[in-house]
Amino acid sequence: MSETGVHSSAIHERAQKAMGDAHLQEAYRSSTLRLYSHRMGAIGQVPGFEPLRERARELKREVMNHLDYYLAQFADSVEREGGKVHWARTAEDACAIVKEIVRNAGANEVVKGKSMVGEEIELNHALEAAGIDAIETDLGEMIVQLSGERPAHIVAPAIHKTRHDVSDLFVEKLHSTRTEDPEQLTAIARKTLREIFARAEVGMSGANFAVAETGSVVTIENEGNIRLCTTAPRVHVALVGIEKIIPRFSDLGVFLRLLGRSATGQKLTSYTSILTGPRRPGEDGPDEMHVVLIDNGRTGALADEKMREALYCIRCGACLNTCPVYRKIGGHAYGWVYSGPIGALITPQFVGLNQARELPFASSLCGACREVCPVKINIPDLLLHLRGEAQERTPATPHAGEVVSERKGMRLWAWAMKRPWVFSLGGAAVRLGIRWLPSSGGQGSKWITRLPFYPFSNWTKGRDFPEPDPVPFRERWKKLSS
Amino acid sequence: MANNSPKVALFITCLGDQFYPQVGESVVRILRRVGATVTFNPQQTCCGQPAFNTGYREEAREVAARNLDLFDDADYIVAPSGSCSTMFRVFYPELFAEKPELLQKVERLRQRFYEFSEFLVKVMKTEDLGASFPHRVAYHDSCHLLRELGIETEPRKLIKAVKRLELVELQDNKVCCGFGGTFAVKFPDVSVAMARDKLRAAADAGAEFLVANDAGCLMHLAGYIHREKLPVQTLHLAELLEKHE
């Protein structure tokens, strides 16, 4: 899995870099706030939004508790409708399957609609290595592909780019004339892409939902590119994470109403495509429809009764938009395709906690993510759970300036806290010790400007630390109670 | 339970004991004023949250287990902290989920546990404590208090009852201040950047004082205010309710 590039301890460096970039900070701030306020406006207009969330959660729970059943039903339905189902246990399997399909189609180029699972399995790299060009057609995806980056957001891949950035990029890579008008920029992208659509033999998409009952793959979007990818080329390949299954066609209404509103504040996105099998005689559409069902760590999460809940996620990105940490550090800091609070939960499931151990700690546990989650995933609770797992099962990351390891420090802390006299004595010792530390202030209270030893030294990097009060409460109580 | 003089055991949080003892004193005086009998068991230390929050569940459990026995004889347990109240009420059941022999104690404890502002408004049915404070004050919603315990109106009712005080709402009043327990030292730069945003919002609202119910948030925000010499002061709600200006 080393090629996934998740080295979560680097989150600190990457976060630092993002926070030092005023331009990037402003891009994240304004975009997330805009999406957040759109969402707020949209859900305010829906009576019964709460019951809808409950219903979606209930449905997801049902699916995850019986995923084997629904997956089998889905696969049968796809085959019944004339599609072909492929099962991929790992990212490598999935890429190999796709390469095989493309080769069989005699193609050396594919057009892709936006797919996060495609990013997850690093399909573009695999295809390139096999001599196949993979062209992203979602505007945001196209922008990040042209700049050689990963998506910075689950829904809005190029959220970190301003119009100005996109303009520069198009001039450099597409040799277009400079414009910052969004409509003209879109027109430039469209013109570039139309030619490619016209000749492409294979089109790829992800899936927002996969309906077990009917074998339908459902995609939602605003640009129409996914619709072109899935209907214009002769072969359509849908990449489907196995958690995308929903039971019945009638359940789709529940999820569609939640997803658009949670993601962008739209009642529905401009396009909703429901693809059931390849074209029938007399219809337009692809001759072949392939559905690649991808596990890539999902059954591991499924086996953990607690973490299973993370698989309820419908990838709306609302938790990213509301997360004060995501707003500061940006999507790339998380080091993999899924960022924000939900990324901190699912990345460790998919790549292993060893490689992603820092991610569950990248949260102040404020709970804003749970408040907006359309399927009510208890994200802070699961992050806490993962922190426990990380400390129990993975080797700790040593920190510079640490005199005792975190684990030993916590053992010592627990030992002291179980003994009130040690707690008091410790307080007194600290009062004595800090006299020699640099401090400022004076009126009544003094403030330490530099604390020694990790983790305390980190407190005073950007803040002062108050001196403990000379007379703690337990001393004062004696007077209060007499 | 005795209706005329409820017996209240204090939980004075570890930060409160060491850094904000005057808040504890205010809590005692206010609770007595509204008719409670107040006790404090000096055997108490910490709720266990620092370890729990960092993923050291065994250490957290060891520290927390002591608390299950310390407050047995009180009608209510009251803490001037949303975060520690959350630890007792929300996280203890989870922390002891695999210790069924202790769950009954946990349940008995959490049902009697109240955050300070919640206790005053919901149990003692008191809002006006006779304080007077002629300043522009903003209230900072601590995340655990707001989202884990759902306490949003109670502190505001108490603040609004303070005479001559002008309560202003921060534009981002539901956004975390960036403290987050050990998050503050694990991600110090992000934590500080969040404090900066919060205090910018306080400045925009023209607040002279920022009031909260959690020593953690206050220590973090005050630390940034002091470092940057910002013209705003922090105050615990209990201190505010004793002001007579």
What does this protein structure show overall?
The complex is a heterodimer of chains A (482) and B (245). Chain A contains 22 helices and 13 strands. Chain A is an alpha/beta fold and 482 residues long. In chain A, the strands form three sheets. In chain A, strands 1-10-7-4-2-3 form a six-stranded parallel β-sheet, with helices on both faces. Chain A has a four-stranded mixed β-sheet with strand order 8-5-6-9. A three-stranded antiparallel β-sheet of chain A has the order 11-12-13, with no helix packed on it. In chain A, a hairpin with a 4-residue loop joins strand 5 and strand 6. In chain A, helix 2 packs across helix 12 and helix 9 packs across helix 10. The model of chain A has no long low-confidence stretch (mean pLDDT 93). Chain B has 245 residues and is α/β, with parallel strands linked by helices. In chain B, helix 5 runs antiparallel to helix 6 and helix 11 packs across helix 12. Chains A and B meet through helix 1, helix 15, helix 17, helix 18 and helix 19 of A and helix 1, helix 2, helix 3, helix 4 and helix 8 of B.
Short overview:
The complex is a heterodimer of chains A (482) and B (245). With 482 residues, chain A is α/β, with parallel strands linked by helices.
Question: How are the secondary structure elements laid out?
Answer:
The complex is a heterodimer of chains A (482) and B (245).
Chain A: H1 11-19, H2 22-44, H3 49-65, H4 67-80, E1 84-88, H5 91-104, E2 109-112, H6 116-120, H7 123-129, E3 133-136, H8 139-146, H9 163-174, H10 182-199, E4 202-205, E5 209-211, E6 216-221, H11 225-231, E7 235-241, E8 245-246, H12 252-264, E9 271-275, E10 288-294, H13 298-303, H14 318-322, H15 324-329, H16 340-351, H17 368-372, H18 379-393, H19 406-417, H20 420-433, E11 439-441, E12 446-448, H21 456-459, E13 465-466, H22 473-481
Parallel strand pairs in A: 1-10, 2-3, 2-4, 4-7, 5-8, 7-10
Antiparallel strand pairs in A: 5-6, 6-9, 11-12, 12-13
Chain B: E1 7-10, H1 14-19, H2 21-33, E2 37-39, H3 49-54, H4 57-70, E3 76-79, H5 82-95, H6 100-111, E4 113-115, H7 116-123, E5 136-139, H8 143-148, H9 153-160, E6 166-168, H10 183-186, H11 188-204, E7 209-212, H12 215-228, E8 233-236, H13 237-240
Parallel strand pairs in B: 1-2, 1-3, 3-4, 5-6, 5-7, 7-8
